[in-house]
Amino acid sequence: MTSEQRRITLGVSLIVGLSLLMATGLTFLIEPMALDLRLSDEIVEDMLAVPSVAALVVVFSAGQWGDWFGHRRVIAWSASAFIVGACVIAVAGGAVVVQAGLAICAAAAVTMQIVGVGLLREATGKGQAQTSAFTTYGMVFPLAFLLLPIGTARVLEISDWRLVPQIWIVGGLLILACAFFFLRGRTNSIRNSNWVTALLLGIALAALARALAEVSHAAADPAPVFGGLVVGGVIVLLCATVLRTRLQIREFFQAISDRTLWVLLVCVALVSLVGLITFVSIALEFFYEMSSYEAAIAIIPAQIGAVLGAKFLASWFINKFGGIRAARILLLALAFSMLSLITVHATTSVWVMISIAAVFSFLGMGALTVLNTEVMRQSSESDVGSISAFRTAASSVGAALGVGILGTIVMSSVRVDDGVSAVSSDQLDALAASLRIDGVLSFFIVMLGFVGLTAIMRRNQVRFSEIHSA
User: Would you say 304 and 359 are in contact if contact means Cβ atoms under 8 Å apart?
Assistant: First the structure.
């Protein structure tokens, strides 16, 4: 890597890491904030759904903004919006104001992440520099989820909850500093007329994801489920029929018209779907009567495994086998690692649970980093922003499906009215059984990706043979 490429990689990694302040800290922040503002459980559930909905609304638009206005400028605007959102939360006196602040922060954060990945791809090209940059970038998310939640929990132990969004404000200011110190401005811009399509499809995706998230609740409210399905379905139907020509739908999806890229994006969604760390953390709380903070500490080895998988495992496999073959091997290993959950029972040692989580975090983040690197390698120079947006959308859809499918199985197995300690042994057995079911399902889900990549590899080999023989 050149010195400029290293500078941009460091800058993007710092920016994206700081943009995760809200996502990593909200779980700990929500309880003291709800107590102080006297929020009902229903409002808290809606509040937790706001960031994902807001992020998905802008996901496709954000992919175009970097090309339109320049990466550094968009990141600076987004950092400013993040600061505004954090200020709104810090002074909030009610649920509506908090939700508005969370929505602003989430939309700004996902914009910085999408634009940052696009900039990283443009700066590093398609060689060894790209592999090094993206495996370094791959460490950002597990590192953030390792350090920032613990930091948030510690802050809440010594101070009022409003200090947390004040720290987010400082994070936004640091992002601004990083943008101007590490990144260079760009005056040229690429414009197109697909912004309406991007916005509509973002709204549709957000509505469908909201419906899936609601399905995972123990007592799902049919209104948001039905509303989300209707809104998402109607927009998709209109875009596919009446508005197809006017909104240039075909041109919008031109960036991902290649079959290999489609399969890679599906694999990104599948690996994101089987992110079982959250459910293992829930199991730790119930099996061993841990607090959320203690469970976060217990899964530190899993987060460390994810960091090592993103940087070292992914880098070695890409250099040894190439992108698609490396992803295929890691998907196969990840699929079989999921079967280790078959051994889980309510009396399973805590160290066994932690070891299982560490193994599939190591393999899962390695596979995801390889897939992300290969997705961006497949993009052309003119479609970098759009491909980055589709990659983020695929990951978000996978995570939403994971909550809707695997999360529903886990959460429906346990009812908590009087706290974790009041859960019966039968419910603990049911929770263990749900984890075993999730392990088997995850095996088959990941194997779908393995089969897809195998088909793509054989197709590419046949094409190469035909061209060589000709």
Answer: no
**Contact in structure between 168 and 21 (CB atoms under 8 Å):** yes
Q: H-helix or E-strand containing 26?
A: helix 21-37
| Apex 314 CA angle, 179 and 265, nearest 5 | 75
pLDDT, tens digit, 9 for 90 and up, residues 35-63? 888 887 677 777 877 888 888 888 888 88
Average per-residue pLDDT for the chain: 83
Question: Residue by residue, what is the 3-state secondary structure of 141-200?
Answer: HHHHHHHHHHHHHHHHHHCCCCHHHHHHHHHHHHHHHHHHHHCCCCCCCCCCCCHHHHHH
| Contact of 299 with 354, CB cutoff 8 Å | yes
Q: Mark out the alpha helices in 241-291 (DSSP H runs).
A: 249-252, 259-273, 277-287
User: How far from the centroid of its chain's Cα atoms is residue 18's Cα?
Assistant: 15
Three-class secondary structure of residue 242 per DSSP: coil
φ/ψ bin of 113: left (φ > 0), alpha (ψ from -120 to 50), beta (otherwise): alpha
- CA-CA distance, 417 to 20, in Å (whole number)? 32
* DSSP letters spanning 89-137: HHT--SHHHHHHHHHHHHHHHHHHHHHHHHHHHHHHTTSHHHHHHHHHH
Maximum Cα–Cα distance across the chain: 73
Helices (H), 339-424: 350-378, 384-402, 408-411
Record the pTM.
0.85
In whole angstroms, what is the distance from residue 245 CA to residue 250 CA?
A: 8
